[in-house]
Amino acid sequence: MQNKRTIGIIILGVIVVAGLLVYFLFNTKEKTNWEQHYKEASKDPYGTSVLYGLLQQRSGGLTDVNTDYLQFIKKYASKDTSSNIVLINRYAFLSDTEATVLMNWAGQGNTVFMATESIPGELMRKLYTNECNQEWEGLSSFTDSIIHPNFTIASQRDSLDYTYKAPYQGPNSFAVNPNEQWTFYDSKYLCEEVDSVIEYGYITANADSGYINFLFIPWGKGGFYFHTNPLLFSNYYLRDYQHLKYTSKVFQHLHNGNTYFDKFHKSYQDFNQKGASEGPLVYILSQRSLKYGWYLLLVMTALYIVFRAKRKQKPIAILEEKKNTTLEYYKTVGSLYFQQQDPYKISLLMFRMFRIYVKEKYKISIKTNDENTVKLLSTRSKIPHEHIEKLLNIDRYVNSRPAVSNEDVISYYQKLNYFYLNCK
């Protein structure tokens, strides 16, 4: 029963592994990723491959930023005076030193454009002059299913606000009217005394609302553009002409010089560890074939542990079948006596064995001079009385006369053999 159960589990495990293999090898249909990751090489709804392609068409070209600003600006852009750095992501991660380097670079006449839902505090606390007596506490947000962005500058403003519906929530969502959190620059930082911030755009959710979502903070000969809704620049929206038109107007504020696309600050960096990089598992999981191979390896390892961790019984040794060696014993003993050529000893041995046989089978101790013994043995063995009497006479004769010939031994054997074959 236990063996059948083990075999069943093994067969089930093999079927599972085979099914996974077939699924990973033949299921080539790419699944849509609905995460808001803003990856420039991704064609997912919330990637930025469309925007990345548009920026590549600019006259100054497009260069990726794959390291921190200290190293990048020092190596590639230290002498720039009309270049741009573009960062599109939900969050931006900067160290305090990087914020200072970035401000110095912007002060040379360059532009920094950040479309993020959270402006780095290390940077804003240096840029914001606190003219409204309000310490910088971050962006605010509201939730709605539809927003209408537009521009505050008359030369860019459209007569009708653009319309953006809240993004699709993915194939497993049951929301009929999905909502999204939209961030904006709180009015408490924009009192009448403020002249260090220039408002460029706003979003509305209804007739009574108006939230600043696009602004410019001058710094030296250049400055910083902050847009609080990176979602508007994703592939999901840029497939529509009106949305593409809005994006085009936003990026008209960039210089015509070099444009650097920031890929490095989209994820948290430990600035105390120089040279920190992504681990090998990050790359493996980013490649479809390697990712499925990794998952398959984990499944097979788990199955191996399940089936091999069970204690196994040591192999049972094969025992040879017991054989009856009585005949071989008799043959050996007979051969020894035959080699000695002593008929007398052979006769004594035959009759000794005869007495033992009778005692074990019939519980009779043979007494050669006892008539009752002859009758009793004849009765129990069903051997004629005369034959029993002859055997006992021969036994008495052998014991009293050591001179026995080979012919006598043969005769004795024949008579004893008759008894063994016919006794009951």
Biggest pleated sheet: 9 strands, mixed
**CA-to-CA gap between the ends?**
48 Å
Quickly count the helices.
Answer: 14
Structural class: alpha/beta
Physical arrangement of strands within the biggest beta sheet = 1-11-2-3-10-9-8-5-6
Beta-strand residue percentage: 5-15%
How many strand segments? 11
Helicity, in percent? 40-55%
SSE order: HHEHEHEHEEEEEEEHHEHHHHHHH
Global geometry: rod-shaped
Q: Give the averaged pLDDT, no decimals.
A: 82
- Structural domain tally: 2
* Spans where pLDDT lies below 50 across 5 or more residues: 270-277
Radius of gyration: 52 Å
Give an account of the 3D structure:
A hairpin with a 6-residue loop joins strand 8 and strand 9 (about 210-220). This protein has helices at about 1-25, 50-55, 70-75, 95-105, 120-125, 235-240, 240-250, 280-285, 290-310, 325-340, 345-360, 370-380, 385-400, 405-420; strands spanning about 60-65, 85-90, 110-115, 140-145, 145-150, 165, 180-185, 200-205, 210-220, 220-225, 260. Residues about 270-275 have low confidence and may be disordered. It is an alpha/beta fold and about 425 residues long. The protein folds into two domains: about 30-275, no CATH class; about 325-420, no CATH class. Strands 1-11-2-3-10-9-8-5-6 form a nine-stranded mixed beta sheet. It has a two-stranded antiparallel sheet with strand order 4-7. The longest helix is centred in the first third of the chain and has 25 residues, at about 1-25.
